[in-house]
Amino acid sequence: MSLKNIIDKEIKESMFQKNKSRLIALRAIKAAILLEEKSGSSHNFNENQLLMKLIKQRKDSLTLYKEQSRSDLAIKEEEEINIINEFLPKQMNESELIDQISKIINSVNATSMKDMGKVMGIATKKFNGKADNGKIAQIIKEKLN
Q1: pLDDT greater than 70 at residue 44
Q2: Angle ∠(50,89,3) on CA atoms, nearest 5
Q3: What is the pLDDT of residues 49-101, one digit of tens each?
Q4: Is 2 in contact with 48 (CB distance < 8 Å)?
Q5: DSSP class of 91
Q6: Which CATH number fits domain 94-144: 3.50.30.10, 3.40.190.10, 3.40.50.150, 1.10.10.410?
Q7: How far apart are CA 99 and CA 101, in angstroms?
Q8: Domain 3-85: what homologous superfamily?
Q9: Model pTM?
């Protein structure tokens, strides 16, 4: 079952349960899916990357709201992040990530920051939706320095 169908089902269920906060997050996911489909890039459409992008946007907003002492809005963003996370594969912990990145670095014989792009390309495909790309890049930089 595609993510779009799952989200549609969840939207109906949330409407039935009158769960407004969940409904808002689910509708945001559906809107992002529809935008992606209509943009014509549906052949490169990756559900996990889309969800990670939505989470990143909310984390950025969350940071701003916390800086501005807007706890009411920060709570809403945290709720949306948690709801979107439900549709992602289980996230890798940091030690697993470090292990896997080390293996990738060894397999491509990366020795310096010049090889970061090569390692990053392989890692982002391998960990699609299982880890944040920012965290992946940070670990690669530490390993290659």
Answers
A1: no
A2: 50
A3: 899 999 999 999 999 999 999 999 999 999 999 999 999 888 899 999 999 99
A4: no
A5: P
A6: 1.10.10.410
A7: 6
A8: Uncharacterised protein YqeY/AIM41, N-terminal domain (1.10.1510.10)
A9: 0.78
What residues does each domain of the chain span? 3-85, 94-144
**Residue 100 to residue 13: CA distance in whole angstroms:** 38
Which of the four pLDDT bands, split at 50, 70 and 90, describes residue 43? Answer: low
Q: How many CA atoms lie less than 13 Å away from 136 in the CB half-sphere?
A: 24
CA distance 17 to 61: 27
110's tokens = 């990366």
Among all chains, which residue has been given the structure tokens 């769960």?
19
